[in-house]
Specification:
Strand content: 5-15%
Shape: elongated
Number of strands: 2
Helix content: 40-55%
Order of helices and strands: HEEH
Number of helices: 2
Largest sheet: 2 strands, antiparallel
Strand order of the largest sheet: 1-2
């Protein structure tokens, strides 16, 4: 099944707010638990990554890195 970024965003918003109902594209789905929401999110995320619509996550959650070098010249 082809999923959309709209569906992923709706499920992630529901997870963040603790709501069990998700609305997207005029449709409404009510899940039984937050665990079910997380499982659905993982399936949608994997499908979007496989199709190339979503980049795979980085290994670090620290954001972009930079290096600063100081010298005593």
């Amino acid at each position: 099944m082809a999923f959309s970024l709209t569906q992923l965003n709706a499920i992630e918003a529901a997870i963040g707010s603790g709501q069990l109902s998700v609305n997207y594209d005029g449709k409404s789905v009510t899940y039984r638990s937050v665990g079910d929401l997380i499982k659905a999110r993982d399936v949608i995320r994997a499908d979007l990554m496989a199709s190339g619509a979503l980049a795979s996550p980085r290994l670090s959650n620290r954001g972009p890195g930079s290096l600063t070098i100081f010298s005593r010249d």
